[in-house]
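Hello,

Our lab assistant flagged a job as stuck in the queue for most of the afternoon. It eventually completed. Since we weren't sure the result was trustworthy after the delay, we are filing this so someone can double-check. Below is the sequence as submitted and the structure that was eventually returned. Let us know if re-running is recommended.
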Amino acid sequence: MSDSASIAALDRLLQLTVLLGRDMDESLARDGISRSRAPVLWVIAAAGPRTQRELADSLHVSPRNITGLVDGLVADGFVTREPHPNDRRATLVTLTGAGEALVAKLAAEQDEFTRQLFGDWKPAELAAFSRGLDRTVNRLQQLIEAAAT
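-- returned structure --
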């Protein structure tokens, strides 16, 4: 049975995920993008043009799912599909100028939010918080993997 401190910690963690999700949804909506489409832009910005298969693999989603996400980003003018230079059967998903500008804006907003959220924390406090989060994330990954086998 869980003790009350563990239950309280889980309750706070769940509250944190709800608050972060709500804030992220509202912020991204102001920028004209959804939470499901934003990671596609981040991957392309970090790694360069990618095939849809590579994007699906990177984001751990199905090829069908990535097709819908890319279709939306194309329609919004954030990415294009270009012929692959070495594979006639494949296309590369590439950021447009608008996509590059959006990624730069999102990165600046993330930096500002980080400063607002953690700017007054002492380095030792932030390090301890990060260690606790790392431990929690690692344990959750272990539990998920164990449940899948």
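-- support follow-up --
The delay was a queue issue, not a problem with the job. The result is valid. The chain has two domains: 31-118, 121-149. The two ends are 24 Å apart (CA to CA).
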